[in-house]
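Input/output pair, single chain:
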Amino acid sequence: MQRKTWRLWVSYLGTHFAGYQKQPGLNTIEASLQEALLKLTGQTPLLTPAGRTDAGVHARGQVISCTFESYFDSRTLPPALSHFVGPDICVYRADEMPDVFNAKRQSIGKRYVYRISQSGRLHPFNRLFAWDLRQKLDLNAMQKAADFLIGEHDFESFRSVNCVAEHARRMIWLIRITPEVHIDIRGNAFCHNMVRIIVGTLVEVGLGKLAPADIPNILAKRDRTLAGQTAPPHGLSLEEVYYPDDLSTAEIPSGAVFPRYPVSPESWPC
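Output:
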């Protein structure tokens, strides 16, 4: 057997999980993965995720780093681990990495997508994968409001009061709202509930309860009560995590500067 450090790419349906982080007596992504690794390897390695998703939030491209001894290689580990982890989780890729690799500390950023249905027609998929709003939204106004959030800001107004991060200064480099009402948000890091609060605020703009021009004031006041509601979790998916070895889909603007970017030997020793 050989000791190896892995970058695991994981997708999951968050519907039946109490979030990513292991919690006593609750069904979580972390606990399910550790149980699967114990069955597969006889070990329970420390798992470091790129980010922790809340209860009900999905992931198409979560990334987790871990180190353990095994005979597996990058081809055989994903199907073996997926076999033991249960039907709602899939490990679809495994990269062997240097021992210093850490999925959280060395990510450049993340892409989240929030899906909203405004069709007015009930659909069973919406119960699991979209906020079934059933009201018409002014998407142009929402995009104008979103544009005020681009850049590096203090997002104190857009994070949960229970957030334990030292500060709320974050860099968002893209918010794109499609005609299907998919809200694509990309940034270097996100506070607890930050994406869902941004979505809830943009929806209030789309419904005419807030104006796009209100967003700078909400940012400046650093007051959670001024922003919109926290959007329901089931519409949200962690789509991608970006690392320096492949930024081809990140769409980071030319000249952008934020923690760990541009890439340096210190930010990417791998």
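The longest helix spans residues 29-41. The domain at 2-97 is CATH 3.30.70.580 (Alpha-Beta Plaits).
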